[in-house]
Write a structure and sequence with these properties.
With 324 residues, this protein is of the alpha/beta class. The protein contains 10 helices and 12 strands. It has helices spanning 17-24, 28-42, 86-98, 117-130, 145-154, 179-191, 208-219, 249-262, 279-287, 307-317; strands spanning 47-57, 103-108, 135-139, 158-160, 195-197, 200-202, 227-232, 267-270, 292-294, 298-299, 302-303, 320-321. Helix 1 crosses helix 7, helix 2 (28-42) crosses helix 8 (249-262) and helix 3 (86-98) runs parallel beside helix 4.
Length: 324
């Protein structure tokens, strides 16, 4: 059967809705074969980049994201915590590096970056982590051009700002920030010369077409994201999505493979939700083109496999942690 991927290795990804749908709906053996062929052309198929995500400021976020434990709109009993001290963040980054992570990501539960002492402290965090010879990523909400330039000057490698879902379904998940707001932040980051880390969350009650439309929206970004996190919803009690049924594992594998085909050179990051995934499912995701995971006991506030579990899995698969 034709794979609809004759243009998939070009620098400009195939973006039409029909083409994306045709890629996704191939028989799974064909889809995985094509994804693995493209993956091997652009990446070491045995290497997985280990990343660590540090929650540098917890809770009390004014956004109403339906999936998030840190929103003030959700009754999750999460205790807000202020911005961490610089020394604590540097210590966590050093520990992450010792455990094999080459990318350290810092997330703050802010709607937007505000100039002042707290942002100055974040800039110091970026400088100190960059000095460890690690990739440095931040997710801090919306920011303006001057703030993006200051982050770039401090040594920021990438800025994470997910689209979360399709334009059509977005309003079912978030009402306090528009899709246009998100796109504007991504443009601001790109204009500052910072790499864009942008992906979404699967399993929030969206239709399959919404997932494909998310990929189409990502493909329209210019430049294309160098990093694409694929998250699976972790239902948190007290959020509107607490009772959403889990994502079909094969749907996840198809999304990973389709993402790899559409974005040959991107790092495709198997992100939230791994704690409930079997080793076999994670192995299939690696086969489909995922080449990065977040390791450590937590992803912001949700549980995550620890470093020992991840190393044991990679060893069983004959895979290794990617070096910088």
């Amino acid at each position: 059967m034709p794979t609809a991927s004759s243009n998939s290795t070009a620098s400009t990804p195939t973006t039409s809705a029909a083409a994306i749908s045709q890629i996704y709906h191939q028989p799974l053996p064909d889809l995985l074969f094509e994804a693995q062929r493209i993956h091997r052309k652009h990446h070491n198929p045995y290497a997985v980049q280990l990343c660590t995500l540090c929650n540098i400021k917890t809770g009390a976020c004014p956004e109403d994201c339906a999936y998030c434990s840190q929103s003030v709109h959700n009754d999750t009993n999460l205790k807000p915590e202020p911005l961490l001290d610089l020394d604590e963040v540097v210590a966590q980054a050093q520990a992450a590096k010792a455990n094999g992570s080459t990318r350290f990501c810092m997330g703050a539960a802010w709607r937007e970056v505000k100039d002042g002492p707290q942002f100055d402290r974040v800039l110091d965090m970026v400088r100190q982590v960059a000095a460890l010879d690690m990739e440095v990523c931040c997710t801090l909400g919306m920011l303006n051009a001057d703030q993006a330039q200051r982050l770039k000057a401090a040594g920021l490698t990438a800025y994470n700002h997910n689209l979360d879902t399709s334009p059509n379904y977005y309003g079912q998940i978030i009402t306090t920030r528009t899709y246009r707001d998100r796109l504007e932040t991504i443009r601001t980051v790109s204009a500052a010369g910072i790499s864009v880390c942008c992906g979404g969350i699967l399993g929030m009650g969206e239709a399959l077409q919404d997932r494909l439309d998310l990929l189409a929206a990502l493909a329209e970004l210019d430049p294309a994201p160098e990093s694409i996190p694929i998250n699976c919803l972790v239902p948190v009690p007290g959020t509107p999505l607490q009772d959403v049924p889990p994502l079909d594992p094969i749907d996840l594998v198809r999304m990973i493979a389709t993402t790899r085909i559409l974005f040959p050179q991107a790092m495709v990051r198997l992100s939230a939700g791994r704690l409930t995934m079997s080793d076999e499912l994670q192995a299939l995701c690696f086969l489909a083109g995922a080449n990065s995971i977040f390791t450590g006991p937590k992803l912001l506030t949700t549980p995550n496999p620890d470093s020992n579990q991840d190393q044991q899995l990679l060893t069983r698969l004959g895979m290794v942690a990617k070096a910088l």
